[in-house]
Structures are given as C-alpha cells and as structure tokens.
Amino acid sequence: MATLASSSSIVFTANPSSSTSTSSSAARSLALPPRLTLSSLSSSTTLSSLFSNSPTSVAYSTSSRRVLTCIPAFSVVKASAAEKKKVLIVNTDSGGHAVIGFYFAKQLLGSGHEVTVLTVGEESSDKMKKPPFNRFSEIVSANGRTVWGDPADIGKVLEGATFDAVLDNNGKDLDAVRPVADWAKSSGVKQFLFISSAGIYKPTDEPPHVEGDVVKADAGHVGVEKYISEIFESWAVFRPQYMIGSGNNKDCEEWFFDRIVRGRPVPIPGSGMQLTNIAHVRDLSSMLTLAVENAAAANGNIFNCVSDRAVTLDGMARLCAQAAGLPVEIVHYDPKAVGIDAKKAFPFRNMHFYAEPRAAKEILGWKGTTNLPEDLKERCNEYVQIGRDKKEMKFEIDDKILASLKVPVAV
Amino acid sequence: MASMVAVQAKQPSFSVLPSSLSDFNGIRLTTSVQYKRKVLHPRGALHVSASAAKKILIMGGTRFIGIFLSRFLVKEGHQVTLFTRGKAPIAQQLPGESDTDFADFSSKILHLKGDRKDFEFVKSSLAAEGFDVVYDINGREAAEAEPILDALPNLEQYIYCSSAGVYLKSDYLPHFEIDAVDPKSRHKGKLETESLLEARGVNWTSLRPVYIYGPLNYNPVEEWFFHRLKAGRPIPIPNSGMQVTQLGHVKDLATAFVKVLGNEKASKEVFNISGEKYVTFDGLAKACAKAAGFPEPEIIHFNPKEFDFGKKKPFPFRDQHFFASIEKAKSVLGWKPEFDLVEGLADSYNLDFGRGTYRKEADFSTDDIILGKSLVLA
Fold it and tell me: Per the database record, which ranges form the NAD-dependent epimerase/dehydratase domain (chain B) (predicted)?
C-alpha cells in the first residue's frame, strides 16, 4: 500500500478489481511529490505502473489490471451531475461509427452540456447528404455547434476554443488521432475519449470478448489506445461492434429487410450460428455520456461499447422477419466454395464476434436498453416510411450465391 | 466414521479461530453458536457480521455437488445431515483431501437414511429432527419438495439446485434470470419446484447451473473428452463445432450455495451459476487437451442427421448455443468463479481422470459409426 504525503490525506491502495468511484475533486487535489509529476514520466512509464506491485506486461492499464484506487479518508463527494462540460466530438464522415457522434451530441446537449461536433472533411461534400449528417440541424437547434475541417489542423479549425472533454470518433490509427490528441493535451483538455473497435480482440475459443482480453498487437486502434493512456491524466477507450438506429450511415438491419420485404431468400455464410452483438446506438451514447459525467470512475478503463446480448446471424434474420411481420427463408453457403468476396456479400463477420459490456456495467453502473425484437419494429417502420421497401434493387451477389447452391457440392 | 441419525453432542472445532472464540469452546451443537467474524471488506472498511451455526439438511450430498458443499458447510461450523438411501458411503476421502481434514469431516457429518420418494417417511423424519435450512440438491419434481415443506413449517430457507435447462431456447443470448422459461423442457420438474416454493411462501433461493464439471463428475462432460484424448482418438463434434456452451466448476457452485445461506439478498431469488466465459464445442475439446497435457486433438465434424445412433448420444452436450449470464450472482452476492476453464479442467483431470478414476467406461461405438462412414463434413 503506497501512501503519498499530501495535504488531503488520501490513501492509495493497489486493488486490481476495484470499482470504487473516486471523487473527481479528490483526484484534482492530488499533490504529487515532484519526482512523480507527469512531465517527469518517460513515455514508457505510466502512472499506474508506478504503483503496481507486479510488473505490468502491457504499457497501459486496462480495466482488469487497474491498480490505482483513490480512497479518500473523508466522505466521498461524487462528481456532481450538475457539473456541465464543454465537449468536442471529432466525428468521422462515413461508416458505421458516424452515427455514434450524432446520438452522443444530442444526449449531451439534452443534459445541458456544451457540444461542438467537428466533422472530418467539408460541409459541402456529397458525404454530408447522407444520414446522420443531413440531420445535423437537430444538433444546431439544440444549441450545439457543428464545424468541418481536417483533424490534422484541429487547432486552426477550432480557432482557440477550449474543451473539458474530447471524443475522437474518427481515427483508426495513431496517424489520424495523434494531431487531435496532441492538440487536446496542449490546449488543456482534461478527459480524452476514443472510439476504438471490438474488432481488435484476438479471436477466441472462449467468448465473449471481455475488457482486458488479448488484442491484435498490430491493430491501428491499439496504438491509439496506448498513446492516449500515456499522455492523458483522464482517458477512456470504447470498443463498439455493430449498431442500429435512425440516422445510421451504414446499412445494418436494412440488409435483412431489403431481402425479407422482397420475398428473397437471405443468404448467410457458414452455419448461421455465429454470434454477434448488435446494439441500438442509444446504448453507446448513454455509455459515453456516463463516462463524461463520471470521468473519475471512467478514467483508465476500456469499455466494450455494445449491448448486453448477443444474437446469432440466423437469429438476426429471424428477428428482422418477425419485426416486418413476414416469413424468412435462410440459406447457408460457403463463401469460398461460391467464390465471392465475403465482405461484399454480407455485412457481418463470418465468425463469432461477440463482446460483452462488463466493465461499463461494473464500473459506470451502465444499463443496456437494446431490445432487438422491439427496436427492429421501429427500424422496420422507418424502413417502410422512407420508401426503401419499394426501391429498385439489384442482388447480383445474392443471385450468384443462390445459383451456385443449386449445383450439388461434391464432398 | 459417519454418525447415524441422532444428533451427537460434539465439540465444535472451528478451523478459523480468532481468540475471541475461546469463550465458546465446549458448547454443545444443540444450541446455536453465536460468534462474530471480522471480515475484511475488499474496500478496506471493516464489516462485522454475526453468523449463527445452523442445523442443515442436504437432500443427497454423496455424489457430486453435495460432496463439496457439505464439506464447506461443516468447515463453516454448521451441523450438516445428508438425506440419502445410503447406497454410497456418507463420507469418502476425496483425492487431494488430507487425512486430518477427512477425519474431521467424517466425524461430524450426519446421515438420515431414507428414500426421498417415500414422501411419508420424508415428512415424518424431517419433522422429528427439525432443520433450520434445507439444501435440495437432487430434487427433480415439485412433489418431492412438498413433504419437506410440510415437515418444516419454520424452515428458514429452502435452497434449491435448479438448472439453466429451464430457459426457453433463444437466438438472443446469454440467458438472464428474467428470461422466458420453457414449461415443456426436460427440466420442467425444476420449474415446477421453483413455482411451488414461491407459492408456499417459504424463504427460497434457487441456483441454475449450466454444465457442471470437476472431480467426481458423474455426468460424462469432461470425462467424455478425456477418454478420447487418452485413447488418441479423434473427437467427433456435431455440425460446425461453433456451438457455444458454458461450464462451471463444482467447487465454484458449492461456494455459491454457501454464499446464499442466510443471505437476505438471495431471498426468493434465482441465480445463474457457471463460469465467467463461455466456450465453443471445438474450444472445449482443445481446452480439455491443454488441461490434461495432451497434444491438440484432431476434431471431426459430422452431421448427426446422417447417422442412426439408436439410443446412444454421440456427443454429451445439447446441439445448440446454451449459456447464461452470471452477472446477477456476481453483483448481488459478490460471488465469482475461482476457476477459469483450463484451470478447472486441469483440477478435474489431476484429481480424477488423471489418477485413473472415472464413472463411465469408455464407449466409442458412436464414434466408430461416424468415423466408419466415408462422407464426413470438412
């Protein structure tokens, strides 16, 4: 047990499984002896590794190896929810994660925080005609600020604005995130949050992916996670999977509805038993909001940013059909045998890809609300309302798959 | 030697004894012993809890779960009686159990000999004895619980070993305690028992394990793999091998059973109890090999529909995803599994199969049917 001489008599204990929410005011009043100030730390040392009793094999602490717990000797003062923050969201201009920033912005604004969304690229680009960008008026009318620019020039783009917290929902590697992180650090941002990916977990025979599990060392996101853990006093990383929700930039459930409403078979690679995690984006947003509002608890942790249930690929097809009130015919195929590009043919990974949000539940007190049977009904309603069920569509890859399945496969 | 029926006056010998307990030496077990335990709360605050020794009845207790549970309860200072037909010895030394530990346990464990299907006998014998708490480890049907409830109107707690097999099969997993159950499942007797307990108003707790494993397992779970690994045979796994299941070590389950004893938070609650992580069928074959020190096995996938196995089962697990969240038990009870899968399988192997003991002889007849056929799935 390391005891630091400090004016507020705080006792530090090494406690890897602690989920104590620490008082942010206590953390701020921490008086480190000069030799332990952050500026004197080399890039390979982390604050937590100084206090650990055993050598850490990872350069940054994960939630399962967190060794620093602050237990004030006085009564704990919880971070007040009334404390409003100035939050910057650096948002990607496309892809499955784009919608996260949209919901997060709206939720923060609804809670009275100040929000700026910096979307990569130009406001006039064609990409901005797609959701969620074509609904950014909803952010503006809620008093949020929307700007566009190149994250590499972020300081210039933001013209000297300062923030309490930054979420990078854009970069997939250090090249993309470093300019944002470095600018944030130098401009005094206290909390840095990063949208990583559950795709970095190494495949396992023992699902689910749990925070602290081994990740692919060469994944771009891993480099970012490591870097921000080293340079920020308060940081958290979020690893999402797939999501559904109005304003999504990338098809998810739509892929199933396209086929089901047209009475077409749904071709699913492999056995259809592959487990995946499909969350409503509001669950991701609520997790991020909790992290901003209780920064001390979130600090130093990795959070799987997913719903609390897995669904099989076949199951997803069935749930979509139920939501649509229509029958479904599922056909299974082997992508290699058919000779098609698996990624183009099907929007989900052809393997178990299943993380659970255990850290968020234990550490942030987060609760999942995704209810696929119900949520998919709402999604189906919108699908029909925008007329997508009537849209002309080609299913070239599907046709190739179905044609090949009529040929008996020799064993 | 185990004592028969009547309560014996015994000197309590608590193995964990702060000096404040010296006042209680010599007190007969027929009076409840009050002692205070200082338990160091993980966050550093001191928790002082009063824990009374209870008069506990275990229905069963000589086969698997009860063997470990009874030992934990006796160690905690409770008076434990096993209700069994007496087919198996009341106390048998466990592999790895020291002579002194075994002597202590066997001198304290009590036996109530009878057939629990003889409801009249159950009611009269239990009423005559009186028990504070019943652990119903081997009950299958609601009718079996009735005489126990009738005999013990002042029962403090009825702790039941149910099963995650009661959950309705789902595409949307894991199973949580709030999920729909299947009134037509093979385990409907367990469901009906849970309903009866609720209806009778007794303070009940129900634990729902998934697949239980560990030394002395009589269900060929790990043993099935160990037989094949030892024989150097390929492991035949139905369909894709991606089916996800979940194993829980028997000692972790026994610990959970102890955790709910006298625990207000467990009152009228159901808890899933199993391992932290799930595992694919293919992964389980590999984990068994790793745990037992065998090379990575050859796995053969087959389509069960292409074969006629008669009444025999070609594979010991349900051919579907089957796993449950243990989050409720972790957050409400503060319980967590100690064993991870490979560690737990190694524990089982080292204390049981690896010593040459197992319950069922190897039977490779279904394997040979599969391997004999020329068409197998890649």
Answer: 56-273
